[in-house]
# Entry
Amino acid sequence: MNLNYGPEYEDFTKEVQKFCKEYSGVIITNKKGGALTSLSSITNSDKSDGAKVSRSEWQKILIKNGYFARSIPKEYGGFGGDIDIIKNRIIAAEFASNRIPPPMGGQGIDMLVPTLLELGTEEQKQKYIKPTLYGEMIWCQGYSEPNAGSDLASLQTKGELIDGNWVINGQKIWTSTAQYSQMMFCLVRTEPDAPKHAGISYLLIPMDTPGIEIRPLVDMTLNAGFNEVFFTDVTIPEGNIVGKRGEGWTVANATLGHERGSLTDPNATMNRLHMLIDRMKEETINGKKVIENPAYRDKLIQLQGKVMAFQSNSLRVLSAKLNKGQDVKIAGMIQKLIGTELRHELEGFCIDVMGELGTLFEGSPNIRDGGSWQFTYMYYLGLIIGGGTSQIQKNIISERGLGMPREPKTQQET
Amino acid sequence: MYFGLSEDQIFFQDNVKKFLEDNAPLDAVKKITEGADLATKDELHQGLINLGINNILIPEENGGLGLDLLFASAVSQSLGEGIAALPFVGPYVIAPIAIKYGASDSQKEKLFNEMSQNLINCGVGFSEYFGSRDSSDLSISNNKITGRTLFVLDVDFASHVMLCDKKGQIGLVSLKSKGIEIIDLTTVDKTRTYKEMIFKDTPIEILDKTKTSTEAAEMALSAGRIVAAADSLGASQAMINKAVEYSKERKQFNRVIGSFQAVKHMCAEMTAELEPCYSLVWHAAHSFDDSHEDSKLMACLAKSHTSDVSKMVSKKATEVHGGMGFTDLLGLHFWFKRIGLNRHILGSPEIVREEAAKAQGL
# Structure
C-alpha cells in the first residue's frame, strides 16, 4: 500500500492550487449544456464575487492550462498531453475542494468525443471534436425509446438508405438537452432482417434537419431535463455514420462505460458530506443543535462510513488503472450502483436533518442552500434509474462479476 | 501509488487460507468446538505459529517478523474465511500493539523476546475501557488488581491476560497468580472463547507509559477493531461464495435458482456492499501503520460499517440457501455466528460510531 502520488506530482498540485486561487469564485455566465453542469452550478452557488466568463471561454482557459481535454490531440482542439490519470485526479480533487467550476460535461464531451477518437473517420474528428470541447457544439444522445429502455437493443427507430441519404423515422425519449443541442448521436435500426444487436447503426444527426420535433418532458424536479424527439422522414447524408452499417451496438457500448464512470464522483460525495455536517451544526431543534442529538449523529456516522468506503474503493479502482496486473474487476463494476444510491441516501438524510425546513422548495422563505438538498435528492433518483438502472447494474454484477447464469430467453427472443 | 495488498501479503494470506482448508475443514472445526478434539486444536495452533502468525507485529530485533497491521488484517481475512477456531486478535494483535505503545524500553525488550518464542501468550480484556456491561469493574492500585471483568478474549493458550481499566491503564497478570477465578462464557460463536474473570488482590505488571497516557489503549483498541473487521470480511466472503456456488447447482422450476433475478440481485447486493469494505478496512490499516491523524476515526468507521454490511451478508447468504441454510447439516451458521460475534467484539457499532463522532470533534 502506498498512497503517495510521488514527488513529481507535488509541483503539479501546487500549479493547480495556484490556478484555483486565481479563479476563486469565478462565475460561468451561460449554463447551457448537460444536466450535470446545471447540478454543479447549484453546488457552487454560494460564491458570487468572482470574475464572469462564458462557458466557451472557460472551456478554452481550462484546455490552455491542460486542466481539460488533457490527452486529446492539439489538432482536434485538446491540450495534447499524455494520458495521466493521477493528474486528472489531482485536478478534479483541487477543483472540488476549492469549488472551482469543473469543465463542462454532458454527452458530447463524455461520450461522443471518446467514441470519435476511437472509431470516427479523420474527417469526423476534424469536424466535430474541437467545437464540442469548446462547448460551442452541444450534443444529445438518441438511445432510449418508449419501448426500448433497459432492453435498449430492441429499439425500432428506422433508418433507410435512399439515394445516398439516410431517411429516419421513429421516436426517442429521455433525451437530455435536446432543446439546446446542435447535434444528436443516435442509434437507428438500419438492417431490419439482421438479429437484434446486429441491425443497428450509429448515426450523427444535425438537430436543425427538417422533420425533427422536440417535446420537453418535465421531470420530478420540475425541470425539463428530458425531451421526447420525433423523426418524420429526417434526411441526412450517408457519411454521417460512425463505424459500419450494423455495428452501432458495438460503437455505443464503447461509450456506455464512459457514462457510468462519470455519474459518480467520490470527491463530490465527500464535499456533500462536509456540507451535511455544516448543516447539522447550524440547524437546531428546540434551540439545541442537531449535531448534538445522538440519533441524528449516529445516522451521520453510518453515512460517513459508507462514504469513506466508497472513496477508498475509488482509490482501489484508480490503483488498478495505474498498476498493470492488479485485478479489481468487481470493485470497478459496483461504482455506479453504490455511488448513485449512496448520494441519494445522503441528500435524503440532510432533508431529514432539516425536518419541515427540508421540504421547502423553489425559493421559499427560510429555504436552506437554495433548495439543493431536495433538488439533488430527486436528481439522483433519476441517476439511479438512468445510465443502466440499479437493477440492470445488479444483473451485470451477478452475471459478469459472479458468473451467475443469465435469465433464460423467452421463446420470442430466441 | 498502489492501493491494495502487496504480493507478500497475499502470499502469507494464501498460506494461512490453504493451511486451514487442508487441516481444518468444517468437520474438524465442529469437533473442536464441541470440545471433542483438543489435540487437533493444539496442532492447528502450532501449525499457524509455524507459519508465523504470532510474530507478525513483533519487531525483527526481538525475533519477530516486523510486519504491519495491514499484514495482520490480510491474515485475519483468511482466519475469518476459514472460521479458524483459534485465538488471533488478542495475543497476536492487541497485545503486541499495546506493548509497542505502552511499555517501557526494558519491558518491551523482555516481553517481545518472550512472545516471539511463544513463551508467553496473552488473553486480552479491554471491556472496561470501551464499555463495561453488567456493572463489571476493575480497580488497580499498588500493582494489584481487584474486581470483575467480562468478555476476556482468546484465553485458549494463554499464560497471561492483558487487562485495560477504564482509564486506559494496561497491565499483565500471570494466570499462575493467586486470586484469580475464571468462568467460561458460552457465546453463539463456538470458534472463539470468552471468559469472565474475577480478581482479588492479584499481582499485575503495569505497562509503564500507560500510567500517564491512553495512547497505548487507543492504538491497541483501533488495531483490534480493524483486524476484527478484516475477520468479518473473510467470513462474509466465504458466505457469498457459498451462496453463489449453491445457486448455480440447486434447481427449482427446472432452472438453477441462480438464474432467477430475485436470487441474483441478493448476490449482487452482498457483493456490491462488501467490496468497498475491503477498501475501507485496508485503508484504515494503512492509516494506522502510517500513524495518520485520522487513524482512530478510520478504525471506528471500518469496524462499524463492516459490521453492518457483514450482518446483511450473513442474513442474505443464508436465505439464498433456503431451508438448507437454516440447518446444522450445512454448517453455514458457523460463519453467521462468527460475524455475529465480530460485530460486538471490542465495541458494538453504536458505541464505536459514538467514538468516531468524538474523534472528529462532533
User: Anything to note?
Assistant: The domain at 215-359 of chain B is CATH 1.20.140.10 (Butyryl-CoA Dehydrogenase, subunit A; domain 3). The longest strand of chain B covers residues 144-153.
